[in-house]
Design a protein that fits this description.
about 250 residues, mainly alpha, about 0% strand, TSUP
Length: about 250
């Protein structure tokens, strides 16, 4: 793995951004930081680099997202779906055009955000549903494997429930802690586990931990309405990025 100053600088910034999202919103928006890494390394190397950093950051975040912030009834149905989705995502990576999945997920996410903006079906509090939770967990597992973007499907299930901002963040954090543990092995298996690789991981970890701390401070400064608006805004940003990646991949651009 290239160990130049440029690679180190971009990696530290990208990991800091991802850690910030973890602290502020519980995770699920890693795709916002990944394009930065793509400037200095290929996506496979980026995924391998992030795998151990995600796990370390997840456990560090337990000091903020403690068990009292987890919605256990929702996790009870989301996590089995996640397990199925991660396996399905691996199959998709091997046999299906991943860019088609990106486009479908992006369009669905943008429609979801548009309905909220219009005050439609996703506005306000909705009762939890076992079937919807299983579907959301599965979709998140697939997209987190094929595009490092498991946040939109999970958010589309959790946001309409009207959870408190702490419960939303904690549930999201725990969900992706499990997901990142599941993904770590496969990603490390394809990585270049040289001394340089682990050296870059060690350099990036402080930035990840600082990002979590800074994000947690922002989380406490946001009220419930601001938190929901910020989450929907991030959904739109993530969806646009997914849509671009999907269309560019299908069309063969870049």
């Amino acid at each position: 793995m290239d160990f130049s100053f440029q690679v180190i600088a971009v990696s530290v910034v990208a990991v800091g951004v991802i850690g910030f999202m973890k602290g502020a919103f519980g995770g699920g928006f890693a795709i916002i930081g990944i394009p930065l890494l793509a400037l200095v390394m290929d996506p496979i190397k980026a995924g391998s680099l992030l795998a151990p950093i995600f796990v370390a950051t997840d456990f560090y975040a337990f000091r903020y997202w403690r068990p009292r912030t987890w919605s256990r009834p929702d996790l009870a149905y989301l996590v089995p779906g996640l397990l199925v989705g991660v396996v399905a995502g691996y199959v998709v990576l091997r046999h299906v055009n991943r860019h088609v999945v990106e486009i479908l997920m992006a369009v669905t996410t943008l429609l979801f955000a548009w309905l909220w903006w219009r005050g439609g079906a996703v506005a306000g509090q909705r009762p939890r549903s076992k079937n919807k939770a299983l579907l959301a967990g599965s979709a998140s597992g697939i997209t987190t494997m094929v595009a490092h973007s498991g946040g939109p499907p999970l958010a589309m299930y959790l946001l309409p429930l009207g959870l408190s901002k702490e419960m939303y963040g904690g549930t999201t954090s725990m969900f992706f802690t499990i997901g990142n543990l599941l993904k770590a092995g496969p990603w490390l298996a394809v990585g270049e586990l040289t001394a340089g690789f682990w050296g870059l991981v060690a350099i990036c970890l402080p930035a990840a931990f600082f990002g979590v701390w800074a994000g947690w401070r922002l989380h406490h400064r946001l009220n419930q309405t601001q938190m929901v608006r910020a989450c929907y805004g991030l959904l739109v940003v993530t969806a646009v990025k997914l849509l671009w990646d999907g269309v560019a991949g299908v069309m063969g651009w870049g």
